């Protein structure tokens, strides 16, 4: 059933959980190593970082998303993470973004969801769903 795609790999939840733990620890090389070379990464429409959608490959994600987060935020944390196993080797994460923008000191506390797709224990797809109004309002000086 798993080989037919009807059942997801039971390791998917722990793989995604480990990615979030690595991100929280600032271990971006481990996060990137968990991605397939052809990962397709999409930021939520309306998010400033969606200007590069889709980001293809770990290097594009690093340059287009992670580096920009570091440049824009004094701190950026993922909190209240809850993982939900889905069919077709997908994992849904519901969580919140907490951050502080460097340019204006505004705080961010936004509700988000991430839909991960995995294959052969690697991340091959990412879709972000976010409260883009909060993201935009935090960026207003």
Question: What can you tell me about this protein's structure?
Answer:
This is Ketosteroid isomerase. Residues 17-123 form the SnoaL-like domain. The protein is of the alpha+beta class. The protein is built from 4 helices and 6 strands. The chain has helices at 12-24, 28-33, 58-72, 132-138, and strands at 35-42, 55-56, 73-85, 90-101, 107-119, 122-130. It has a 6-stranded mixed β-sheet. A hairpin with a 5-residue loop joins strand 4 and strand 5 (107-119).
Summarize the structure.
This protein has 141 residues and is α+β, with helices and mostly antiparallel strands. The chain is 29% helix and 40% strand. The protein has helices at 12-24, 28-33, 58-72, 132-138, and strands spanning 35-42, 55-56, 73-85, 90-101, 107-119, 122-130.
Got a strand count? 6
Beta content comes to: 35-45%
- C-alpha geometry: globular
Low-confidence stretches: none
Class of secondary structure makeup: alpha+beta
CATH architecture group name: Roll
Q: Cα-atom Rg, whole angstroms?
A: 15 Å
The CATH topology corresponds to: Nuclear Transport Factor 2, Chain: A
How do the helices and strands follow one another from N- to C-terminus?
HHEEHEEEEH
How many structural domains can be distinguished in the coordinates? 1
| pLDDT averaged over residues | 93
User: What is the count of helical runs?
Assistant: 4
Major β-sheet, in short?
A: 6 strands, mixed
Highest-level CATH class: Alpha Beta
End-to-end Cα distance, whole Å, is 53 Å
Q: Helix share of residues?
A: 25-40%
Strand order of the largest sheet: 2-1-6-5-4-3
């Amino acid at each position: 059933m798993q080989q037919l795609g009807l059942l997801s790999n039971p390791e998917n939840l722990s793989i995604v959980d480990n990615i979030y733990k690595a991100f929280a620890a600032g271990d971006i090389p481990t996060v990137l190593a968990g991605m397939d070379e052809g990962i397709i990464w999409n930021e939520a429409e309306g998010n400033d970082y969606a200007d590069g959608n889709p980001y293809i490959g770990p290097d594009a994600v690093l340059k287009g998303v992670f580096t920009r987060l570091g440049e824009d935020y004094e701190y950026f944390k993922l909190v209240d993470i809850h993982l939900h196993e889905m069919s077709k080797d997908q994992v849904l994460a519901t969580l919140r973004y907490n951050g502080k923008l460097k340019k204006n000191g505004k705080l961010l506390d936004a509700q988000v969801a991430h839909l991960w797709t995995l294959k052969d224990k690697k991340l091959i797809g990412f879709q972000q769903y976010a409260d883009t109004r909060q993201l935009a309002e935090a960026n207003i000086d």
